[in-house]
Amino acid sequence: MCMGNSGNAALRAARQGLGYRSQAALADALTEVARTIGLRIEVAARTVRRWESESPPWPHPEHAAALEALFKRPVVELGFIPPWPNDAEGQALRGQSGATGPRKLSQYRRVAGGTELPASVAKNYAAITVAHRGMYWSLPANQLQRSVADHARMGADLLPQIDVRAAVSLAKAVSESALLAGRLEFFDLQQPEAAQRSFVLALQAAHEAADALLGCVVLAHMAFIPAFSGEAKRAEEARERVRAARAFARRANGNHELTAWIDAVEAEVETRFGNTRQALSLIHHAEQSYALHDPQQSPSPEWLDWFTPIRLAGFKANTLISAGDGRQALDTLRRVLDELPAESVKQRSVYLADAAAACVLEKLPEQACGYLEDALDAIGEYWYATTLDRIKAVRQGLRKWDSLPEVRALDERLYDWHTTVNSISG
């Protein structure tokens, strides 16, 4: 495909071939077709203009889905270059000529020299991905994130080189690795921009593998970013991600556990935007779904290891706190803390902070400080930025009790060297 000074000729030709004379007409058509596949997006004419430029950016996942639905072909055949080949290969691909444009990523081969990698590379790569999954629960986040993110990028670079028979298995492992990198960046390290990039790579690799289940969980994770932003104007963005996740789950015949998790994610989104009644209804539906789940009959993928009935109860407690029901939230969290596995240190720290928030609602400041001290102990062992956020939010709620010795002692812990340095650097 030669674009030269004429811009993205492949997309422009495809547009004109379908009878859309202007970029605005294509934008309207893409907005309409997105609705038919369950996406609520608005495509602007200026977006199409960027796509038809000399250096078209890789489309956002929802835009890519709309483009493929409208044109009935992969976006790589519309003049878009996937971001994962290295720069040299990307430049070479941009210089290729041919009416059909670049092929799908799994069909790429090195443009200049090089040999095809054996299928064993995919197997070995996936083994490291599985090891990283297990390490998430025990290694410091900043150390693990570097390794996982590098692993995901390396896998993306390997995709064009792998034996075609192993391309799907490698793409699945790349998607899982990028998803884990995004989880570390978002929940553990509070790096939403880095997490967004990782989630996009995870979604692209899931598409490469045609794995709708992985696509579903990546989209649902992407909903957390606008939901946690604190910006009310991003509510629809978060909800659209959840709708897309549900569409992918239906496409993949997701089981009851997956349905329950998506309900919990949507409940978190609605809680963040103040709709606690709807959130509690979603939690109730999730509990019903979990009651129907039969792991023997319909097992979940091995990588879905971050959700259990007890963690659903944790979601419920957080929503109850937002709804102002401290008593029921505290009862729920006491049960959660009793039943949570010992290795779930990160989640325990979050639930301890939530228990403190429930105590504040019940006007039990001394007990709240006790829970916060325990939460600080936990993040002293395994740093978790999400927990520190919740601790600080509870501390704001304790301001009327600033004179209590327990609150003063809490401040000494909250602003010690370890916590202060981690909160600023982490």
For the structure shown, list the relevant keywords.
426 residues; mainly alpha; 67% helix; globular
Description of the molecule:
The structure is a single chain. The relative contact order is 0.06. This protein is globular. It has helices at about 10-15, 25-35, 45-50, 60-70, 85-95, 120-135, 140-160, 165-190, 190-210, 210-225, 235-250, 255-270, 275-290, 310-320, 325-340, 345-360, 365-380, 385-395, 405-415, 415-425. It is built from 20 helices and no strands. By secondary structure, it is mainly alpha-helical. Helix content is about 65%, strand content about 0%. Among the domains are: about 5-80; about 330-425.
Total of helices: 20
How many runs of DSSP E, i.e. beta strands?
Answer: 0
Beta-strand share of residues: under 5%
Largest sheet: none
